[in-house]
Amino acid sequence: MKNVTHSFVFLAHWPFAGSFGLNTDILATNLINLTVVVGVLIFFGKGVCASCLKDLLDNRKQRILSTIRNSEELRRGTLEQLEKARIRLQKVELEADEYRMNGYSEIEREKENLINATSISLEQLEKSKNETLYFEKQRAMNQVRQRVFQQAVQGALGTLNNCLNTELHFRTIRANIGILGAIEWKR
């Protein structure tokens, strides 16, 4: 306390003109600063009443609370949207998995169908090839038979022409005519 009193006494003894000094006494310096601040507040705050200041503070408090409420509502709305987006993402992922599985199943079905169709086509081609080979073989055999028959007929005609004379010719013709006549008579 002695120091505080001493500080006020020290202030009273300042020279009016002259040098400027640095006060190193912390208590005296704080007291001076507080006195200046209180004086400025009293001087400029004369027109401000306590209820006006209270109203200003209440308005400020209401704006802060309103901003906090708005922020909370926005936060809740954002969280709801985030949850909806997560649910939608899960649905989309499930649908994508389903499409992927259906796609794989469809690919497998198409693969099996293609294999079956190719197998059937190969069987039909094999059958067609075998039939073609059989018909070609039959045709070749018929051609060979025809040639053999023609050669045999030509050989027989040549032999007959060499061996037969006119009388034998007439007897053979008459015998054949008789056979044909007997066949017609039976009918």
Automatic annotation (TrEMBL):
GO CC term (a single one): proton-transporting ATP synthase complex
Keywords, A to Z, come to:
ATP synthesis, CF(0), Chloroplast, Coiled coil, Hydrogen ion transport, Ion transport, Membrane, Plastid, Thylakoid, Transmembrane, Transmembrane helix, Transport
Q: Where in the cell is it found?
A: Membrane
Primary localization:
membrane
Write out the transmembrane intervals. 31-53
InterPro entries according to UniProt:
ATP_synth_b/b'su_bac/chlpt (IPR002146)
Single biological process term from Gene Ontology: proton motive force-driven ATP synthesis
> Does the entry feature the keyword Ribosomal protein, yes or no?
no
Q: Which domain of life is it from?
A: Eukaryota
Tell me the membrane topology, using the record's own terms.
Single-pass membrane protein
Determine if Transport is one of this entry's keywords: yes
Q: Which GO terms describe its molecular function?
A: proton transmembrane transporter activity
Where along the sequence do coiled-coil regions lie? 75-102
Supply the HAMAP family for this chain.
ATP_synth_b_bprime
The task this protein performs is described as:
F(1)F(0) ATP synthase produces ATP from ADP in the presence of a proton or sodium gradient. F-type ATPases consist of two structural domains, F(1) containing the extramembraneous catalytic core and F(0) containing the membrane proton channel, linked together by a central stalk and a peripheral stalk. During catalysis, ATP synthesis in the catalytic domain of F(1) is coupled via a rotary mechanism of the central stalk subunits to proton translocation.
Which family does the similarity line name? Belongs to the ATPase B chain family.
**What is the name of this protein?**
ATP synthase CF0 subunit I
Task: Tell me what organism the protein belongs to.
Answer: Chasmanthium latifolium
What is the primary gene name for this protein? atpF
